Amino acid sequence: MPQHKVVRAVAAAALLCSAVAFAPAAIAQVNISIGIGTPPPAPIYEVVPAPRAGYIWQPGYWDWDDHARKHMWKKGRWAQERPGYVYESPRWVQGGNGWVMEPGRWDRGHDGYDDHGGNGKGGKGGKGCPPGHAKKGEC
Q1: For residues 13 and 64, what is the distance between their CA atoms, to the nearest angstrom?
Q2: Backbone phi, psi, residue 14, to 5°
């Protein structure tokens, strides 16, 4: 076999092996929750600016600054809305290992259920339709 074909074959094999070796690491997710013993202070009142078309207001919240070892206020801000989604603000919850922050997130529809209509308003009464109820005509 000519030398250039051997070099190409070895390079292709090395590329394939590296892709296979690193693929699981590329799709893996790690979530770490670290509890702190200090509860967050009371929220700071912020005046919500006038509504902006196509945007939603994300209220401010207390974040933990590990370097300063204290809570730091993050001011509210406008974020581009995501049709079919509802924004949930970050919040602190008390658990067995202290206070843990649940980060802000975009949820599909209301009540955690997808209404499959894409409008984020759910079925009757503005609520999401739990799985299996739409087929029964309950939503």
Answers
A1: 47
A2: -65, -40
11, 16, 59, 62, 74 from 89: Cα distances, Å: 49, 43, 7, 11, 12
Considering just the CA atoms, what is the radius of gyration of the chain in Å?
24
Interacting residues of 115 by C-beta distance below 8 A, sequence separation 6+ = 109, 121, 122, 123, 128, 129, 139
- Whether the full predicted model's pTM is greater than 0.70, yes or no, is no
What pLDDT, in 10s, does the model give residues 75-124? 999 999 999 999 999 999 998 889 999 999 999 976 544 444 433 333 33
Q: For residue 86, which phi and psi values (nearest 5 degrees)?
A: -120, 135
Question: Which residues 6+ apart lie within 8 Å of 104 measured at CB?
Answer: 58, 61, 87, 88, 89, 90
Contacts of 128 (CB under 8 A, 6+ apart): 109, 110, 111, 112, 113, 114, 115, 122
DSSP states of 69-126 as a string? TEEEEEPPEEEE--TTEEEE--EEEEETTEEEEEPPEEEESSTT---SSSSSS-SGGG
